[in-house]
Amino acid sequence: MIPAAPNSITCMSFGSEMILLFGTEDQKQRYLRSVCQGAKIGAVAVTEPDAGSDVLNVSTKAVEQDGGYLINGSKMFISNGDIADFLLSRCGLTNPDAASKTARHSVIVIDGDSPGIERNKIHGKTGDQSHDTAEINFSNVWVPKENLIGEEGKGFECFMAFSTGPGPILLPRAWVWPRAPLEMALKHTRKRKVFGKPLSESELVQDENWQRCNMD
Ligand SMILES: Cc1cc2nc3c(=O)[nH]c(=O)nc-3n(C[C@H](O)[C@H](O)[C@H](O)COP(=O)(O)OP(=O)(O)OC[C@H]3O[C@@H](n4cnc5c(N)ncnc54)[C@H](O)[C@@H]3O)c2cc1C
Known about the structure:
By secondary structure, the chain is α+β, with helices and mostly antiparallel strands. It has six helices and ten strands.
Protein backbone atom coordinates (compact mmCIF):
# COMPACT_ATOMS: atom_id res chain seq x y z
CA MET A 1 0.00 0.00 0.00
CA ILE A 2 1.24 3.50 -0.78
CA PRO A 3 1.58 5.15 2.64
CA ALA A 4 -0.84 8.04 3.04
CA ALA A 5 -1.22 8.16 6.80
CA PRO A 6 1.91 10.31 7.39
CA ASN A 7 0.41 13.06 5.27
CA SER A 8 -2.90 12.97 7.11
CA ILE A 9 -1.16 13.07 10.49
CA THR A 10 1.27 15.89 9.67
CA CYS A 11 -1.55 17.98 8.23
CA MET A 12 -3.52 18.04 11.49
CA SER A 13 -1.53 21.01 12.76
CA PHE A 14 -1.02 22.71 9.38
CA GLY A 15 -0.63 26.46 9.76
CA SER A 16 0.00 26.36 13.50
CA GLU A 17 3.61 27.37 12.87
CA MET A 18 2.50 30.70 11.38
CA ILE A 19 0.24 31.45 14.36
CA LEU A 20 2.96 30.39 16.79
CA LEU A 21 5.62 32.58 15.17
CA PHE A 22 3.61 35.60 14.03
CA GLY A 23 0.21 35.44 15.74
CA THR A 24 -1.12 37.55 18.60
CA GLU A 25 -1.79 36.10 22.05
CA ASP A 26 -5.52 36.17 21.26
CA GLN A 27 -4.98 34.18 18.03
CA LYS A 28 -2.86 31.63 19.90
CA GLN A 29 -5.59 31.20 22.50
CA ARG A 30 -8.34 30.98 19.88
CA TYR A 31 -6.66 28.51 17.53
CA LEU A 32 -3.49 26.86 18.91
CA ARG A 33 -5.04 25.80 22.18
CA SER A 34 -7.82 23.88 20.37
CA VAL A 35 -5.35 22.32 17.90
CA CYS A 36 -3.25 21.03 20.82
CA GLN A 37 -6.39 19.64 22.47
CA GLY A 38 -7.33 17.87 19.24
CA ALA A 39 -10.55 19.90 19.11
CA LYS A 40 -9.79 21.89 15.94
CA ILE A 41 -8.14 21.17 12.61
CA GLY A 42 -6.35 23.80 10.57
CA ALA A 43 -5.48 24.16 6.90
CA VAL A 44 -3.15 26.32 4.83
CA ALA A 45 -4.72 27.71 1.67
CA VAL A 46 -2.12 29.08 -0.72
CA THR A 47 -2.31 27.18 -4.03
CA GLU A 48 -4.77 28.47 -6.62
CA PRO A 49 -5.91 27.06 -9.97
CA ASP A 50 -3.36 29.32 -11.72
CA ALA A 51 -0.63 29.50 -9.05
CA GLY A 52 1.07 26.48 -7.48
CA SER A 53 4.89 26.43 -7.36
CA ASP A 54 4.75 30.11 -8.30
CA VAL A 55 3.42 31.11 -4.86
CA LEU A 56 4.00 34.81 -5.39
CA ASN A 57 1.43 34.79 -8.16
CA VAL A 58 -1.63 34.01 -6.01
CA SER A 59 -4.43 36.42 -6.84
CA THR A 60 -7.08 35.97 -4.13
CA LYS A 61 -7.99 39.47 -3.00
CA ALA A 62 -8.59 40.78 0.52
CA VAL A 63 -9.90 44.34 0.47
CA GLU A 64 -10.33 46.39 3.65
CA GLN A 65 -13.99 46.90 4.51
CA ASP A 66 -15.97 47.70 7.68
CA GLY A 67 -13.06 47.12 10.04
CA GLY A 68 -12.07 43.86 8.40
CA TYR A 69 -11.29 42.29 5.03
CA LEU A 70 -13.58 41.19 2.23
CA ILE A 71 -12.06 38.13 0.58
CA ASN A 72 -12.68 36.87 -2.96
CA GLY A 73 -10.84 34.13 -4.84
CA SER A 74 -10.28 30.39 -5.25
CA LYS A 75 -7.88 27.91 -3.71
CA MET A 76 -6.97 24.46 -5.00
CA PHE A 77 -5.61 21.15 -3.58
CA ILE A 78 -6.01 22.26 0.03
CA SER A 79 -5.15 19.57 2.60
CA ASN A 80 -7.97 19.29 5.17
CA GLY A 81 -9.82 21.83 3.02
CA ASP A 82 -13.16 20.09 3.41
CA ILE A 83 -12.90 19.46 7.16
CA ALA A 84 -10.80 22.31 8.56
CA ASP A 85 -12.23 24.51 11.31
CA PHE A 86 -10.01 27.38 10.20
CA LEU A 87 -7.95 28.21 7.13
CA LEU A 88 -4.78 30.27 6.98
CA SER A 89 -5.07 31.89 3.61
CA ARG A 90 -2.44 33.83 1.74
CA CYS A 91 -4.31 36.58 -0.10
CA GLY A 92 -3.38 39.38 -2.49
CA LEU A 93 -4.03 42.13 0.03
CA THR A 94 -4.34 45.91 0.31
CA ASN A 95 -1.09 46.42 -1.57
CA PRO A 96 -1.34 44.32 -4.76
CA ASP A 97 0.53 47.12 -6.57
CA ALA A 98 3.62 47.05 -4.29
CA ALA A 99 6.78 47.09 -6.39
CA SER A 100 8.12 43.94 -4.76
CA LYS A 101 5.99 40.84 -5.24
CA THR A 102 7.07 39.64 -1.79
CA ALA A 103 5.36 42.68 -0.20
CA ARG A 104 1.92 42.16 -1.76
CA HIS A 105 0.43 39.38 0.30
CA SER A 106 -0.74 38.84 3.84
CA VAL A 107 -1.90 35.79 5.77
CA ILE A 108 -5.41 35.91 7.19
CA VAL A 109 -7.20 33.29 9.31
CA ILE A 110 -10.64 32.49 7.97
CA ASP A 111 -13.04 30.53 10.16
CA GLY A 112 -14.38 27.54 8.25
CA ASP A 113 -18.01 28.40 8.95
CA SER A 114 -17.78 31.99 7.63
CA PRO A 115 -20.61 32.84 5.19
CA GLY A 116 -19.45 32.82 1.54
CA ILE A 117 -17.12 29.81 1.71
CA GLU A 118 -17.78 26.92 -0.66
CA ARG A 119 -15.70 23.76 -0.29
CA ASN A 120 -15.61 20.91 -2.78
CA LYS A 121 -13.81 17.70 -1.85
CA ILE A 122 -11.53 16.48 -4.63
CA HIS A 123 -12.32 12.90 -5.71
CA GLY A 124 -10.41 10.48 -7.92
CA LYS A 125 -6.86 11.02 -6.64
CA THR A 126 -4.45 8.27 -7.66
CA GLY A 127 -2.95 8.09 -4.15
CA ASP A 128 -3.07 9.59 -0.68
CA GLN A 129 -6.66 8.42 -0.30
CA SER A 130 -6.94 8.90 3.47
CA HIS A 131 -5.98 12.53 3.07
CA ASP A 132 -8.73 15.14 2.63
CA THR A 133 -8.02 17.48 -0.28
CA ALA A 134 -10.42 20.20 -1.47
CA GLU A 135 -11.04 23.13 -3.76
CA ILE A 136 -12.27 26.22 -1.91
CA ASN A 137 -14.05 29.32 -3.20
CA PHE A 138 -14.28 32.55 -1.23
CA SER A 139 -17.15 34.74 -2.34
CA ASN A 140 -17.36 38.03 -0.37
CA VAL A 141 -16.11 36.34 2.82
CA TRP A 142 -15.74 38.99 5.52
CA VAL A 143 -13.26 38.50 8.38
CA PRO A 144 -12.41 40.92 11.22
CA LYS A 145 -9.09 42.77 11.13
CA GLU A 146 -7.86 40.86 14.21
CA ASN A 147 -7.62 37.76 11.98
CA LEU A 148 -4.59 39.18 10.17
CA ILE A 149 -1.48 37.15 11.04
CA GLY A 150 1.52 39.41 11.65
CA GLU A 151 1.68 42.54 9.52
CA GLU A 152 0.08 43.45 6.23
CA GLY A 153 2.41 42.71 3.32
CA LYS A 154 4.41 40.14 5.33
CA GLY A 155 2.54 37.10 4.03
CA PHE A 156 5.48 35.73 2.07
CA GLU A 157 7.69 35.83 5.16
CA CYS A 158 5.02 33.97 7.16
CA PHE A 159 4.59 31.42 4.43
CA MET A 160 8.33 30.75 4.18
CA ALA A 161 8.40 30.05 7.94
CA PHE A 162 5.59 27.55 7.41
CA SER A 163 7.30 25.93 4.40
CA THR A 164 10.58 25.37 6.19
CA GLY A 165 8.88 24.35 9.48
CA PRO A 166 7.38 20.99 8.47
CA GLY A 167 10.19 20.38 5.97
CA PRO A 168 11.94 17.66 7.99
CA ILE A 169 8.60 15.84 8.24
CA LEU A 170 7.74 16.22 4.57
CA LEU A 171 11.15 15.15 3.28
CA PRO A 172 10.82 11.43 4.18
CA ARG A 173 7.38 11.56 2.56
CA ALA A 174 8.91 12.77 -0.71
CA TRP A 175 11.24 9.75 -0.54
CA VAL A 176 8.55 7.20 0.32
CA TRP A 177 5.95 8.29 -2.23
CA PRO A 178 7.87 7.50 -5.42
CA ARG A 179 9.64 4.52 -3.85
CA ALA A 180 6.51 2.65 -2.72
CA PRO A 181 4.91 2.26 -6.18
CA LEU A 182 8.30 1.28 -7.66
CA GLU A 183 8.69 -1.46 -5.04
CA MET A 184 5.14 -2.65 -5.73
CA ALA A 185 5.87 -2.83 -9.47
CA LEU A 186 9.12 -4.76 -8.91
CA LYS A 187 7.42 -7.23 -6.59
CA HIS A 188 4.65 -7.78 -9.13
CA THR A 189 7.04 -8.41 -12.05
CA ARG A 190 8.92 -11.03 -9.99
CA LYS A 191 5.76 -12.84 -8.92
CA ARG A 192 3.75 -12.67 -12.14
CA LYS A 193 4.53 -15.54 -14.56
CA VAL A 194 4.11 -14.92 -18.29
CA PHE A 195 5.05 -17.51 -20.98
CA GLY A 196 6.45 -19.79 -18.28
CA LYS A 197 8.79 -17.33 -16.61
CA PRO A 198 8.55 -14.35 -14.26
CA LEU A 199 7.62 -11.11 -15.99
CA SER A 200 10.83 -9.58 -14.60
CA GLU A 201 12.86 -11.82 -16.96
CA SER A 202 11.09 -10.47 -20.05
CA GLU A 203 13.08 -8.38 -22.46
CA LEU A 204 11.55 -4.94 -21.92
CA VAL A 205 11.32 -5.31 -18.16
CA GLN A 206 15.02 -6.19 -18.21
CA ASP A 207 15.66 -2.79 -19.75
CA GLU A 208 18.65 -0.91 -18.40
CA ASN A 209 16.39 1.63 -16.65
CA TRP A 210 14.67 -1.13 -14.72
CA GLN A 211 18.02 -2.62 -13.76
CA ARG A 212 19.08 0.74 -12.41
CA CYS A 213 15.90 0.89 -10.32
CA ASN A 214 16.50 -2.53 -8.77
CA MET A 215 16.92 -1.77 -5.12
CA ASP A 216 17.88 -5.18 -3.75
C1 LIG B 1 -2.09 15.84 -1.96
C2 LIG B 1 -1.82 17.31 -2.09
C3 LIG B 1 -2.00 18.16 -0.99
C4 LIG B 1 -1.77 19.51 -1.11
N1 LIG B 1 -1.98 20.33 -0.01
C5 LIG B 1 -1.88 21.68 -0.14
C6 LIG B 1 -2.18 22.54 0.96
O1 LIG B 1 -2.51 22.11 2.06
N2 LIG B 1 -2.11 23.89 0.76
C7 LIG B 1 -1.75 24.44 -0.43
O2 LIG B 1 -1.72 25.65 -0.53
N3 LIG B 1 -1.42 23.64 -1.49
C8 LIG B 1 -1.48 22.28 -1.38
N4 LIG B 1 -1.18 21.46 -2.43
C9 LIG B 1 -0.78 22.05 -3.69
C10 LIG B 1 0.72 21.95 -3.91
O3 LIG B 1 1.39 22.82 -3.03
C11 LIG B 1 0.93 22.28 -5.39
O4 LIG B 1 0.43 21.18 -6.13
C12 LIG B 1 2.37 22.54 -5.70
O5 LIG B 1 2.76 23.78 -5.15
C13 LIG B 1 2.63 22.52 -7.20
O6 LIG B 1 1.77 23.40 -7.83
P1 LIG B 1 0.96 22.95 -9.15
O7 LIG B 1 0.24 21.67 -8.84
O8 LIG B 1 0.12 24.12 -9.58
O9 LIG B 1 2.07 22.62 -10.21
P2 LIG B 1 2.85 23.66 -11.12
O10 LIG B 1 3.28 24.84 -10.31
O11 LIG B 1 2.02 23.94 -12.33
O12 LIG B 1 4.10 22.79 -11.50
C14 LIG B 1 3.98 21.67 -12.40
C15 LIG B 1 5.30 20.94 -12.46
O13 LIG B 1 6.31 21.82 -12.95
C16 LIG B 1 7.42 21.84 -12.05
N5 LIG B 1 7.99 23.19 -12.01
C17 LIG B 1 7.39 24.32 -11.56
N6 LIG B 1 8.22 25.37 -11.68
C18 LIG B 1 9.36 24.88 -12.20
C19 LIG B 1 10.61 25.47 -12.55
N7 LIG B 1 10.84 26.78 -12.37
N8 LIG B 1 11.57 24.68 -13.08
C20 LIG B 1 11.37 23.35 -13.27
N9 LIG B 1 10.21 22.73 -12.95
C21 LIG B 1 9.22 23.49 -12.42
C22 LIG B 1 6.86 21.45 -10.69
O14 LIG B 1 7.85 20.84 -9.86
C23 LIG B 1 5.79 20.44 -11.09
O15 LIG B 1 6.33 19.16 -11.26
C24 LIG B 1 -1.36 20.08 -2.34
C25 LIG B 1 -1.16 19.24 -3.44
C26 LIG B 1 -1.39 17.88 -3.32
C27 LIG B 1 -1.18 17.00 -4.53
